[in-house]
Amino acid sequence: MPLSLARPPGARDSGCGGRGRAAVGSADVTSQRTSLTPPEDARAPVRHPEAPAPGEPLGSHYDQCFGCGTGQPHGLHLDARAGEGVDVTAEFTVKPEHQGAPGLAHGGVLTTALDETLGSLNWLMHTISVTGRLETDFRQPVPVGSVLHLEARVTAVHGRKIYCTATGRVGGPEGPVAVRADGLFIEVKVEHFISNGRDEEIQAAMNDPDQVRRARAFEVNP
Ligand SMILES: CCCCCCCC(=O)SCCNC(=O)CCNC(=O)[C@H](O)C(C)(C)COP(=O)(O)OP(=O)(O)OC[C@H]1O[C@@H](n2cnc3c(N)ncnc32)[C@H](O)[C@@H]1OP(=O)(O)O
């Protein structure tokens, strides 16, 4: 998947460490050349042969996860489904506990929904990865009671770096895009969680055979 790093016409170098920030008038906008742009020698993502079948629900990776856990009363309760490629879909119903302004979803919660949907792409590639960078565009407010129709896909892979993108639509799966994000996930080993997580939750997770099975699934079938 060759990907051009050419700058858009008129983009100026702002000198921000190669991250591609360009000043236009008084606004600070992101040019096409950022750390979210795959390098030219990035490869196309590959669907793992043992990835869940298209349409299959992926389930929660951890029951206390704020994004997908069934044990989190105020969580988002996302349950993504596998797509046909290296992609997933999910729905998020905005509840009163997700408000930022009166009757509207909090932007951070919407970003979490995008982040979690992107995270569930792990199941399609049989990798374990975490968010390194995430850039969200908020295009229209999302009222409480709305169903956000989420879609995420991997666009490119370069070493441990997984480039991906997600949208959240309102009014149906074909409705207007209310939020979107580009992400860079970084592949990690299970030890990332064991050595960084708080002891009591790590011990509880390690004492749960079902949790251990899910955490190690990709290592057994690399
Ligand atoms: C199990 C699935 C759960 C899914 C839940 C939903 C997703 C989440 O919310 S995950 C939680 C939020 N994320 C985190 O907590 C991650 C915290 N960050 C970290 O632990 C580390 O910074 C980590 C693991 C991302 C990278 O550290 P490390 O393993 O040392 O990798 P490092 O060598 O620094 O970087 C690897 C490559 O990624 C690049 N990279 C790393 N971070 C970034 C970044 N923020 N922006 C751009 N590039 C980055 C590096 O430049 C490097 O590139 P190259 O290979 O070309 O040199």
From TrEMBL:
Pfam families reported for this sequence: 4HBT (PF03061)
Region annotated Disordered, chain positions: 1-58
Topology relative to the membrane: Peripheral membrane protein
PANTHER family xrefs: ACYL-COENZYME A THIOESTERASE THEM4
Protein's UniProt name: Acyl-coenzyme A thioesterase THEM4
GO biological process: fatty acid metabolic process
MF term (GO), any: hydrolase activity
Entry-linked InterPro entries: HotDog_dom_sf, THEM4/THEM5_acyl-CoA_thioest, Thioestr_dom
GO cellular component: cytoplasm; membrane
Keyword tags: Apoptosis, Cell membrane, Cell projection, Cytoplasm, Fatty acid metabolism, Hydrolase, Lipid metabolism, Membrane, Transit peptide
Family the entry assigns: Belongs to the THEM4/THEM5 thioesterase family.
Compositional bias ranges of the Polar residues kind: 28-37
Record localization: Cell projection, Ruffle membrane; Cytoplasm; Membrane
Basic and acidic residues bias spans: 40-50
Domain annotation Thioesterase: ranges: 103-169
Catalytic activity: decanoyl-CoA + H2O = decanoate + CoA + H(+); (5Z,8Z,11Z,14Z)-eicosatetraenoyl-CoA + H2O = (5Z,8Z,11Z,14Z)-eicosatetraenoate + CoA + H(+); hexadecanoyl-CoA + H2O = hexadecanoate + CoA + H(+); tetradecanoyl-CoA + H2O = tetradecanoate + CoA + H(+)
UniProt keyword Membrane, yes or no: yes
Domain of life: Bacteria
EC number: 3.1.2.2
